[in-house]
C-alpha cells in the first residue's frame, strides 16, 4: 500500500488477482484512480466478484481473460478502457499453482508491456523464478529510461521486484522504506 501512496498512479493494472486486488481496490476507490484487475482463471474471477459484492466493493474493474497460446488474450485485454494508460503494472501472471498455461516470458507479454507508454512503476511477483527473471530482464531491455530497482525478499524464498521508471519516485520509496523495519522482510536496492 505504501507503494501506491508514493506513486499515486492514475491507472493501475494488475495481472492476476489475490490479496493485492482488495488492497488496490480500496486505494483506487478512495483516490478516484482507475483500477484494472485481470484474472486468467475463471473460477478465481468469480470468487473475486462474490467477495467484492460481500465487501461492498465495486466489481466493474474485475476482468477475466483466458490464455491464448502462451499469454493473455490481447484482443480482449486491449478493449479494456484505459489499459494503455497504465502507470503502475502489477505483474503476477500468467501461471501459478492453480492456473494452467501461459508463460511470463512470452513475446506477447513483452509487446504488451512495451506498449504501455505511461508506465512509471513495474511490480513483479515471483522474481525468484528463473522464467520470471528472464521475462523481466527482457522488459527492462526495451525501456530506455533510467530505472531504480528494489528487491524485496519475504517468506524465506519469495521475491518481489519493484522497478521505478521515475527517479524521484524510486528515491522517495527508498527513503520511506529505510524508515520501516520488518523482521521477516528485507528490502535491497537491486543492480
Description of the molecule:
The chain is an alpha/beta fold. The protein has helices at 2-7, 19-31, 42-54, 74-77, 107-114, 130-141, 167-178, and strands at residues 11-15, 34-39, 62-64, 67-68, 71-72, 88-91, 121-125, 148-154, 158-164, 185-189. The strands form two sheets. The protein has an eight-stranded mixed β-sheet. Strand 8 and strand 9 (158-164) form a beta hairpin. It is globular. The two termini are 24 Å apart. The model has no long low-confidence stretch (mean pLDDT 83).
Summarize the structure.
36% of the residues lie in helices and 24% in strands.
List the helices and strands in order. Answer: HEHEHEEEHEHEHEEHE
Proportion of residues in β-strands: 15-25%
Compute the CA-based radius of gyration: 16 Å
Contiguous runs where pLDDT drops below 50 for at least 5 residues: none
Helicity, as a percent range: 25-40%
Element layout with pairings:
Elements: H1 2-7, E1 11-15, H2 19-31, E2 34-39, H3 42-54, E3 62-64, E4 67-68, E5 71-72, H4 74-77, E6 88-91, H5 107-114, E7 121-125, H6 130-141, E8 148-154, E9 158-164, H7 167-178, E10 185-189
Parallel strand pairs: 1-2, 1-6, 2-3, 6-7
Antiparallel strand pairs: 4-5, 7-9, 8-9, 8-10
Amino acid at each position: 500500500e505504501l507503494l501506491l501512496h508514493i506513486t499515486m498512479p492514475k491507472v493501475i493494472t494488475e495481472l492476476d488477482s489475490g490479496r493485492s486486488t482488495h488492497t488496490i481496490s480500496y486505494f483506487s476507490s478512495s483516490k478516484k484512480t482507475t483500477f484494472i484487475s485481470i484474472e486468467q482463471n475463471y473460477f478465481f474471477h468469480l470468487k473475486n466478484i462474490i467477495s467484492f459484492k460481500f465487501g461492498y466493493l465495486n466489481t466493474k474493474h474485475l476482468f477475466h481473460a483466458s490464455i491464448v497460446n502462451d499469454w493473455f488474450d490481447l484482443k480482449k485485454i486491449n478493449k479494456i478502457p484505459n489499459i494503455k494508460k497504465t502507470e503502475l503494472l502489477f505483474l503476477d501472471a500468467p501461471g501459478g499453482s492453480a492456473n494452467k498455461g501461459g508463460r511470463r516470458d512470452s513475446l506477447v507479454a513483452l509487446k504488451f508491456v512495451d506498449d504501455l507508454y505511461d508506465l512509471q512503476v513495474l511490480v513483479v511477483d515471483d522474481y525468484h523464478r528463473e522464467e520470471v527473471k528472464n521475462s523481466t530482464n527482457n522488459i527492462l531491455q526495451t525501456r530506455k529510461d533510467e530505472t531504480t530497482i528494489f528487491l524485496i525478499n519475504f517468506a524465506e524464498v519469495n521475491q518481489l521486484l519493484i522497478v521505478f521508471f521515475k527517479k524521484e519516485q524510486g528515491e522517495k520509496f527508498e527513503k520511506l522504506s529505510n524508515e520501516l523495519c520488518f523482521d521477516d522482510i528485507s528490502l535491497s536496492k537491486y543492480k
